[in-house]
Amino acid sequence: xxxxSDAEASAxxxxxxxxxxxxxxxxxxxxxxxxxxxxxxxxYSFALAQSSHLKFLLTVPFTTYMLFLRLAEExxxxxxxxxxxxxxxxxxxxxxxxxxxxxxxxxxxxxGPSGKLTxxxxxxxxxxISFPVVSAVALIWAIPFTFxxxxxxxxx
Length: 156
Known about the structure:
By secondary structure, this protein is mostly helical.
């Protein structure tokens, strides 16, 4: 083998490994989203079963925040791997490794290639509903039952 072939073989091996890492990170993001929805659903169900349990909704923002931080870590790890493939590995292979660049250009999104409709509706991602909105609703719902006495609530 010549040096070009060795360099390309090395790049392909690294690419294969990074694509596996990307797939694993994407699976973890889906798992985190499922976990978030499950925990939030369980906490909402418990809290809504009795009005005295509504203060338990205050745990939703905490769990949501912790899961969102983990999700963000997975997202940025995926993004870094994609950028490494585009900027470092692709130039080492004749003809390049074009999957990430092609996908960025050609991905079909609601509202067209730029995804303007998606960003307008979801703030860039449906995760904006499943994480911050779920937390905000829990806070708004629980705060009066936690910090305002029953007598004061009945007067209003």
